[in-house]
Specification:
globular; 300 residues; seven-stranded mixed beta sheet; alpha/beta; four-stranded antiparallel beta sheet
């Protein structure tokens, strides 16, 4: 799942100050409308006050009229008119993003950049992912939600086979592999993401356990089989479409950790998986994004 940090090589940025409702709505519509490898959006509270800031990063110069029209749809014309576009120097945004990102903890796992290696404690499971790679750093609500769910699942049980669908940077697969000391199958539709995940696995001393492949959904011989735990941090529509394939790959008693969902997406995704025999075991919400843990059986 690609997430809300500046895309690699970001060249332009939009900034907008407004209230929380409009800020979240603008960030959400950008995330839903544009390719997440080229555009990323985030909404942030300013000094615990009523003002929120939206930042949208673009790999290429955006169509300002198109963006303002989108903002007007979810907010209003006055808010759209206040949006400020500017060009950014490539060397500046990388340093700013690195400087502003603290390590993220999810149970035993600490996701960090190379600038924070010294903050990994003796008993931590450190996963080093660079902010400049733009996705899967653990700071986004979807990735953090999955990491927390993974930690809770592994406190209850030790799955024999784990699959990460839509691996992105490989952060979930790497975390699972390092926690379990065993192979984790993973794939992604994006060849660039797969190369990134491979490099991250090697950099995190997990190259023997994490060998991502380019796969559309679960269609690759390297990930065919039955799994006790399936992670899928993608988006609502592909999660719904993949429900039969994911269900077919789930072993008896398997658990699913699903994310990439806005709160309004949860009902539709639950319906798709209930029709495959799964029920909701847990739900976590972070910054407007939901993470679901599903199990076979039940009526919840």
């Amino acid at each position: 799942m690609l997430e809300g940090l500046p895309p690699n090589g970001a060249s332009h940025v939009l900034r907008l100050s407004t209230d929380e409702r409009r800020a979240r709505a603008v960030a959400d519509i950008i995330v839903e409308t544009f390719d997440p490898t080229e555009t990323a959006a985030g909404a942030f509270e300013v000094d615990d006050g009523p003002v929120w800031t939206v930042e949208v990063y673009f790999a290429d110069a955006p169509d300002e009229d198109e963006i303002r029209a989108l903002i007007e749809v979810v907010a209003d014309a006055e808010t759209a008119a206040r949006a400020e576009f500017s060009e950014i120097a490539k060397e500046d945004w990388v340093q700013k993003s690195l400087a502003g990102l603290e390590p993220v903890r999810a149970g035993r796992v600490l996701v960090h950049g190379s600038h924070d290696r010294e903050r990994v404690r003796a008993n931590d499971i450190g996963v080093e992912i660079e902010a400049a790679l733009a996705f899967g750093t653990g700071h986004h609500g979807t990735t953090l939600g999955c990491l927390r769910a993974l930690d809770r699942v592994l406190k209850r049980r030790r799955p024999r086979r784990v699959l990460d669908v839509g691996t992105g940077t490989g952060v979930l697969a790497i975390a699972a592999a390092k926690l379990l000391h065993q192979p984790v199958a993973c794939g992604d539709i994006d060849p660039v993401a797969v190369e990134t995940a491979r490099a991250n696995a090697v950099a995190n001393n997990a190259g023997a356990y994490v060998r991502p492949v380019v796969a559309v959904g679960l269609r690759h011989e390297a990930i065919v089989g039955k799994y006790d735990l399936i992670l899928a941090n993608i988006l609502a529509k592909p999660l719904r479409l993949l429900a039969p394939s994911i269900a077919a790959a789930a072993a008896p008693g398997a658990e699913l950790v699903l994310s990439g969902l806005l709160a309004r997406d949860v009902a539709g995704v639950l319906s798709a998986y209930r029709s495959q025999g799964f029920s909701l075991a847990e739900r976590g919400d972070i910054d407007g994004w939901a993470t679901l843990v599903l199990r076979r059986g039940g009526a919840r």
